[in-house]
Amino acid sequence: MAESSTQQSQSKKVMLSAVQPSNRLTLGNYLGALKIWAQLQKDYDCIFFAVDMHAITSRQDPEELREQTYRALATYIAAGIDPDQCILFAQSHVPAHAQLAWVLTCHSYMGELSRMTQFKDKSAKQGTNIPSGLFTYPVLMAADILLYQTELVPVGEDQKQHIELTRDLAIRMNNLFPKAPLFKVPEPYIPPVGARIMSLQNPLAKMSKSDPDVNSAIYLSDSDDTILKKLKRAVTDSGSEIVWDDEKPGIKNLLTIQAALTGKKVPDLVAGYVGKQYGHLKIETAEICIQAIKPIRDEVERLTKDKTYLTQILKKGAQSANARAQKTLDQVYKNVGFILP
Ligand code: TYM
User: Fold this and answer.
1) What is the number of structural domains in the chain?
2) What pTM was computed for the model?
3) Which residues are catalytic?
């Protein structure tokens, strides 16, 4: 970072967030996370990274993981994150994440980790051999956040419980060493609209990049044609009226997508659909999605070809992140009784 932006950033609160590069990013990732990061970035000292170490909690193809990590970084930039103002890096480039995670693991409880709904959901899909990393994953996420004295964590609804655990761990560690509290206690920021975009094939389940049914999610890499096809096929509800009703989760999802992308209010959108059919709603939602996604997709394509540029950003980001993370880690090591090297 330039000297002036470093000085400026020191007076701002730290905002931090991340995405798992375990697959191509979805419209849900964009609306629940990236779009919000870009909107809030100018008011915060921002740290965004790709959590490749989280991604290996489920089996990854190594080449794919490397490519998806570059692609995630490119997507951040394409979505409007300014690489000159924000620290951007890959989690595995900053060893302090794993180091702090171990200390926090020793201060976390089996009971609280067993209550994490994401662990319950993901482990249920794994069969018998559940990787223990899936169980301790929220502790690594807490380390990600606490290392940088983060105050705000913009995430979708599904990550709220992990942030609550992070807060509990921060408070627990601070209480153990009350003379010099180690961590800021972070707050989540969950956007009022778009924090839980649902699957297009099952509007009662979250849109997820790991869903094996590719028609359930809109990927930010989808062509205009694919977006249109997926939305035309989106599962809607019985009846034909376009209204905001809990009995109509499919319609609610499409209206939410429109509201989150356009900034329009749901009642205004609904008023515009009086007398129209589900087909109109699907096609217009597709048009709005295409308009938002096309420029991101094109820019990601351009950026992922320029590995020299992306590598340079990752290097610069890792340098800044390592320096900041090490300060917190040294203090933690000192407090728990390790001899500092
Ligand atoms: P991940 O990779 O599953 O998702 C990245 C971000 O996208 C949001 N999101 C959604 N928002 C709305 N609707 C959806 N259908 C949807 N699907 C995903 C997620 O809430 C998240 O904000 N554990 C995290 C990554 C992580 C992290 C961190 C986040 C690791 N360390 C530190 C913040 C701070 C995860 O797996 O996100």
Assistant:
1) 2
2) 0.95
3) 122, 206, 209
